[in-house]
Design goal:
By secondary structure, the chain is an alpha/beta fold. About 30% of the residues lie in helices and about 25% in strands. It contains 6 helices and 13 strands.
């Protein structure tokens, strides 16, 4: 655990592969800086891992921004906290010599929502994002320019916390801002499954080629993992896995505190 004068309690694990793009790991409500380390290692072996702890407490549970009720966000606080996180990220990149390429965010639930806010409010702070069980954090005016930024949204069709319309709405919003978005739906609840890991691994492996030719690489991505194409728009690709997910456990199993 470290603060190192950067403003957030966090974990940093140096990479073992020179030039690997770092991952920014963002936990869900009630989590901490250790929760997603094993997921990050599985998604991008050898990449540097930067994992901050949310500074807002809700009934003693860390979060990255305040909410007024479940699914109702304090937008003023969200903007402030997103700015704080962007400043932390810029300082950490210098302190840990993380190179010129911005990190890829891997966020779960509340962490996915603050990652979405970083994309929308601080374009350029991330080079991509894997958003697990996200909602629309806010709708900025005007929209940022996110041309070429790859985003994977992993939604659970049986999620009791995230309304069914939210992942699609977020995909459309980010797509309207110019991001290259893939929306993946599984027969999962709010907790993470092995399918999320498998989809995320494949997405990480194809990111570089995806930037060069999103349509071609989506078909390669879908075919190699037995996906079915459901919908394709100029900026948003939507896929679903044909097989039901098998559950897997992160370092901290998602629990009652894990909500957006």
């Amino acid at each position: 655990m470290s603060d190192a004068g950067l403003g957030f309690v966090h974990r940093f694990r140096p990479g073992t592969i020179p030039g690997a793009t770092p991952l920014l790991l963002l936990h869900g409500t009630g989590g901490n800086e250790d929760d997603l380390l094993s997921l990050g290692e599985a998604l991008a072996p050898g990449a540097p891992l930067l994992s901050p702890r949310g500074k807002v407490l809700e009934n003693g549970m860390p979060r990255f921004f305040r909410r007024l009720a479940e699914g109702v966000f304090d937008l003023e606080d969200l903007r402030v906290r997103a700015s704080e996180l962007a400043e932390f990220l810029a300082a950490a990149r210098k302190a840990y010599d993380l190179g010129e390429t911005p990190p890829i965010a891997v966020g779960y639930s509340n962490g996915a929502n603050i990652a979405g806010a970083l994309l929308l409010l601080h374009p350029g702070s991330l080079s991509g994002a894997l958003l697990l069980r996200p909602m629309v954090p806010l709708v900025p005016e005007p929209l940022p320019a996110l041309d070429g930024v790859p985003v994977l949204i992993a939604a659970g069709r049986n999620d009791p916390i995230v309304p069914a319309s939210q992942p699609r709405a977020l995909a459309d919003l980010l797509g309207s801002a110019g991001a290259d978005v893939t929306l993946h739906g599984s027969n999962a609840s709010h907790g993470l499954t092995r399918e999320d890991l498998e989809v995320g691994e494949r997405w990480m492996h194809t990111m570089a080629a995806h930037r060069a030719n999103p349509l071609r690489d989506f078909f390669s991505y879908a075919g190699s993992r037995s996906f079915a194409l459901v919908h394709m728009s100029p900026r948003v690709a939507v896929a679903r896995r044909l097989a039901p997910p098998a559950h897997f456990t992160c370092r901290r199993a998602p629990g009652a505190g894990d909500s957006s």
